[in-house]
Every structure is written in structure tokens, then in C-alpha cells.
Write a structure and sequence with these properties.
alpha/beta, 42% helix, Beta-Lactamase, single chain, 19% strand
Length: 477
Amino acid sequence: MGRELDGAPAILVLGDASASVVDIQYADQAVGRMMQDMGITVGARVGEERLGTNALATPAVTGRDVLLRGHEHSVAAFSSFVCYGHPLVHPVTHRLEGVLSISYRTEKEHPLLRPLGRRVALDIQDRLRLDADHARQRLLSAFQTAARRRGHAVMAIGQGLVLSTPPALDLLRPADQSAVRAWAETTGPRDETVRRLTLTSGRTVLLQCTRPGGGDGVLIHIAPEQDAPRGDADRAIGAARPLLIVGEPGSGRTTEARRAAGVDASTLDASDVVDQGEHDWAGAAERLLESPGAAVVVENLPYLPERLVALLARFLRDTPRDVVLTTTPGDHLETTHAPLVAVCAARRDLAPLRHRRHEIAPLAARMLADVVGAGRVRLTNETVRILAEQPWHGNLTELREVVQALADIRSVGDITPSDLPFSYRNAPQASSPFDKAEREIILAAIEAAGGNKLQAARALGVSRSTLYNRMRALRIY
């Protein structure tokens, strides 16, 4: 289309969904120099917060085409242009992929500017559909080849396409299918990826992910893993003691320690030093650890004062009991509490929930079943996707609180994103601490305004367009 302009005082600008320029075409060198002088170059951000209302950013914010005459631009430098902008929506996923704008240097509105812009936008969307069709055909062919193996569980996930063989449907419950899809969407561009997943039934499977033709679609082979003999991990503590379990708050340290130590285990909590005093706590620890008996769980090592570290380390070296210790990660394991780490013969590090996003769907489903009963409620795929993208700073404890809140408002049927607590209804993007703080401020303002974006913008002291632009950048919907 740039070639077709043939010297006309026009310029074509293609932007991505965040209103960043990805391509510029012009046939008039003078117009091109004007755009460069105004900073409209490849890679430039032309969001409304920087340039106000313009033909590239405004369609990205509103989702509608826009025609701006010279005086309607927020920036005076564009006053000699009439600009038309059209959003580019993927015809398969229905997501905003970018924006096309055509600007013409003229004092009067050109009658063909709007239809020309629409025509170019439709051509681009047709190309997106064609590319999606080719990718879908490659994925469908790979799925059909894999499905010929009798009894083989396989899923194909692509743009607007999800296919499963009967063995996969028999193996995976709805929450499991959501977990598989969430994992597939987060896999990198590598040719092959393998991961272990525990299903809601308690069964463990291996997922093998491939990308046919290197496209966006993924083919997932699902193979049941032979269950390890029960008790192997528990018996391991007898051969490797003491055992140190390291995990963030809420990551299940106590549950893991109890599982490893056994139901008859005694507990020694370092946080009790504050109430009991160092002398009394040390005496209780000595009496417990120097006598034979069931295993002992020593909780919350970070609360243990430095003066008691060497004493507990000596008890651990001489105790006839199996001992499991729990602690949070941090520098204290290499400084204050390093002597305790040194006497431990084994260590288990529990991954935080944000690093186990593929497990969030089955975990949430099991928690819901425990609260309201199996089969009564179901998390929709969109709800699972949003939950999987939360930061989960409180790990399993935080997830359990959210599940309990859901159970309090819905005891039967589908749980949709609107059922989630307000601060969990949107999927945040990975961002800097400043972006996280800004996101929390915007969410609080919207909640205080009862969802009214205009009132929220006024409370924040910004324009409506700026608020919508920041909401889009921070993925607040």
C-alpha cells in the first residue's frame, strides 16, 4: 500500500496493541521528515498518555476506528494532518493485535481516507486469518497422526482450537484440562518440553509438549506415570536425618514436614521462644531430643535466636530421634542459622505456587471439593487462567482463602471471573515494583468508585483516556 501511494502526501503507520510503532511507509520525503521530527519512528511509543488523542493510540484504547481532523489532535504538530485509525482484531482469537493509521497532509478531509484505511485493515486481518488457517492445518495433521495410536492420550491446543482423543478425555477432568491448557500457554518456543502433573484424581501424568512446524499451536502427549511405592519418601528420613524443609510462607512447609515425620511426631516451635524465654525453651528442646521416641518437627527456624543455634545443632547431632526442620528461604540460612543447615543430612526446597502454575487448577478444584463437595461447582477455563496468572505471594494459604471466599458465595454451578474477589479478577502481567504499585492504586480507585472508570479517573487526577491506557498497559480489564 505504501508503494501505491506514489508520491501522495500520506503516511501509513502500523502499531502493536500497546500503541508502539512497528512499521512506517510513506512516499513523500517531506512528510516522512515531518514525522521523524515529531518522533514518530519505529519503536516509538505513541500512547495517549504521551500524545493525547491520536489515530494510533485511541483505537487501541477504545477498540473502534477514529477519524481525526487537524484541530481535533491533542498535539499541535499534527494540526496539518487528517488521520484515520483502525484497530486490527485477530479474526480467530478476537484479540487486539495492533492498529493501522493513515495520515494525509491536507486542510480538508479526504473522502477516500476512511474507506482506504478500512480496506487495508481488512487485508491485514485476512492475512492473519490465512496464517491461522495454515497453523491450524499443521496442528490438525499432527494431532491426527498422533491419534492413530490406539489408546493414546493426546491434546492439540491452538488459536480457537482444542482437540482431545477419547483416552485424554477419560483421563482428564475439566480442572485438569484447564491446568494442561494453562501450562501449554506458558511453555517457551523450544521444540519439546516435558513436565509432571498431578491430576485432581491424585494420579500423576507426564506431559510432553511439541510445536508442529514451530507455530503457535501445541501438541501434548499425556502418559500416566507409574506411582512410586507409598512410603518411600517417608522412609527416606530414617536414612537421611535431620531433614530441612525450605519454603516461602504458605507453601506447605508444615504439611510436608508432617507427612515426612509421621502422624505421631512431636512439635517444637522456635517462635515459642518469645513467650517461654530462651532458658525454658532450651530445656524443653533438650528433654525432647535427648530421649528416644517418635520423630520431632522443629518449626520456624528464623525465630530461633543466635544464642540457641549452636545448642540446637548439638542436640540434633546427638538425638536418637528423626527430626524435620522447617524454615523460610533467605540469607539467614548462610549466616545466623548456617550451623543448623550444616548438620542436616537432607534438604527439600518447596517451589512457590507462582512457579507451579500448572498445578493451580487441580489444587483449587481439590480445595473446592473439600469445602462444598465433589462435583457441585466448577471453575471455568477463564477463571482458571486468571487464577494461574496471579502472583500468589501467600502461596497455598492465599489460594485456600480465595477458594473459601468462592465457596461462601457459590455452592453450585460454574465459578466465573466475576465471582472472584475484586483484586483477583484480572490477570496481572510481570512488571516492575512501580507497575505493581500503580496497578494496586488503580484497582483501589476503581473499587472505591464502584466500578465507574470516569469517577476513578477524576479521583486519580488523570483523564479518562489516560486511565484506560494505563489499565490496558497493566492488563486491568
